Amino acid sequence: MSILVIAGLGNPGDDYRHTRHNIGFEIVDSLNKKNGGKWKSENRFEAEVARLTLDKKTLLLVKPLTYMNESGRSLKPLCDYYKTAIENLIIVADEVQINLGEMKITTTGSAGGHNGIDSVIQHLGDGFSRLRIGVGPKIPPEIELKVFVLSKFNAREQEVVNNKMSDYLTNLQLLIDRGPNLAMNQINQRNKTTDESNFN
After folding, report:
1. Catalytic site residues?
2. Could you tell me the residue range of the domain that residue 139 belongs to?
3. Digit-coded pLDDT (tens) for 185-195
4. 97: which of 4, 23, 104, 114 is 20 to 30 A away, CA to CA?
């Protein structure tokens, strides 16, 4: 039975909780909690890992603890150990070019300036599914990208995230159950990005 690896990207430590860059962590945390999973620290992978069985599918939820820019350093040995094909890897990450509360699935293309996605591509290659969770638009527009994504959601934005969490999990479950092509057709038609220019 093949194992699906679902990695939420983020930065470890309390200082980064509820920042835009950590929404990937929040979503896999919510999926794990919903299904009664337990996180286990795996030093060999520099990650926290939880194993779930849903509808006869084995899922490995992963939170790399390498910091965002080195996410691939954690995921490469884990995927090698479990012999996970690239198409059985799902990355959940923030996307500043998508409006807060919206989401999009892609399987190829550039990292679009996302250092975590770039690290995964460098270590594992392309072809994995990406559930890109909107945290944009960048306000004010002139703010440095790093400063924006490492800042915490304000109260109104966090309320949006909390209210959308069930939708995030529903769409993630659709991706798990039906694969990226069907999930893309359903989810991407409902969600429009603020700037499609980097994604073909």
Report:
1. 21
2. 3-190
3. 989 877 654 44
4. 4
The closest alpha carbon to 129, from 190, 159, 85, 163, belongs to 85
Asked whether residue 153 is domain-assigned, the answer is: yes
Instruction: Give CA–CA dist 166/124, Å, rounded.
Output: 30
- Grouping H, G, I as helix, E, B as strand and the rest as coil, residue 194 is coil
For residue 47, count CB atoms less than 10 angstroms from its CB and return exposed for 0-12, middle for 13-18, buried for 19 or more: buried
Is residue 175 domain-resident? yes
- State the pTM of this model: 0.93
Please, what is the angle between helix 71-81 and helix 115-124, to 10°? 40
Contacts of 80 (CB under 8 A, 6+ apart): none
Query: What SS3 class is residue 36?
Result: coil
**Gap between the Cα atoms of 165 and 137, Å rounded:** 19
User: What length is written for the chain?
Assistant: 200
Q: Is residue 195 part of a domain?
A: no
Instruction: Please give the mean pLDDT across all residues of the chain.
Output: 93
Cβ distance 86 to 124 under 8 Å?
yes
- pLDDT tens-digit series, residues 75-85: 999 999 999 99
